[in-house]
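Give me C-alpha cells for this 303-residue protein.
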Amino acid sequence: MSSVTFERQRAALADVVAIPVTPFAEDGSVDLQTHRALLRRLLEGGIRTLTPCGNTGEFYALTPEERRLVTESTAEEAGGRATLLVGIGHDLPTAVASARHARDLGAHMVMVHQPVHPYVSAAGWVDYHRAIAEAVPELGVVPYLRNAQLPGARLAELADHCPNVIGVKYAVPDAARFAAFARDAGLERFVWVAGLAEPYAPSYFSAGATGFTSGLVNVAPAVSLNMIEALRAGDYPAAMKVWEQIRRFEELRAAHGNANNVTIVKEALAALGLCRRDVRPPSRPLPEDERAEVAAIAAGWSI
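Here you go.
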C-alpha cells in the first residue's frame, strides 16, 4: 500500500492528539450523553484528532463492551470533523478485533497500547504489532511506546513489514533517549508524537516530534492549541509561557507515580460543571480538601 494513502493520517498525528475522558453516570455506567457533549466541546474548540480508549479515557478500567461503546460514540459524534486514532490493546485476538471494529466504524488509525505483560521481548514486541498491523492494512497504526529498552531498529523492522505503521506515540520520559530512538528508527519515516503531553512537548519537539498527546485539552482546548502553534512556529519562549501556565496542573497529575493523572482532569471538568468527578479503581476521586486548587487552575484558564 502506498504511503500516499496515509497523508491525512500523518497530518492528523502532527497535531494536538486529544485523549478524551470517559465520563461515568451516578450508577457507574458510561454516560454517553455527557461523553458526546464533551466531544462536541473539543471539536468546537478546534481539536481535529481524537483518541477514544486512551489512558485518559481509562482504557484499562473499561469492559470490552464499554470500549466498543466509547469508540462508537466518538465515531458518531466526530462524523467527518476529526481523525480518529482508536486505542486498542490487551491480548492479540482482542486487539485485532478492536482494530477491525474501529475500521468498520470509519476510524482512520489505531493506537496500540504498550503490551501489558511481565515478559516483553523486543522480537515479541515486533510480532505483536505486526499481527495487528497486518490485520488492518488500510488503517494507520501507531505503537504507544513506554518501553525504554526497545531499540529504534526494531520499529524500523516492524515498518519494513508493515508500511501502515506510520507514527509513534513515544512516552519514555527522557528527551535524549527519544532523540536517539527516533534517529535509529528513521526520523522522517514516522510521525513522532510526544506521548507525555504538554510538559514534554517543547523538549520532544526540539528533537523531532511534530505532535503531542493531551489530557489537559479536555479542560482547556485553547491552551493546548496555543502550545502547538508556538511549537510549529519554532517559538520556544512562547511555548514555555504555556508550559508555565500548565505546569502546576500537570505536576498534580504526575504526583505519586501518576496516581491522579485522570482524577485531576475529571476534577477540573467537575469544577466547570461539565461531568462528574467519578473515576474507576484503581484510580480514585480527589479528596475534598484538595479540590479547590484544581478548580482555581481550571477557572484561571479563561475557558
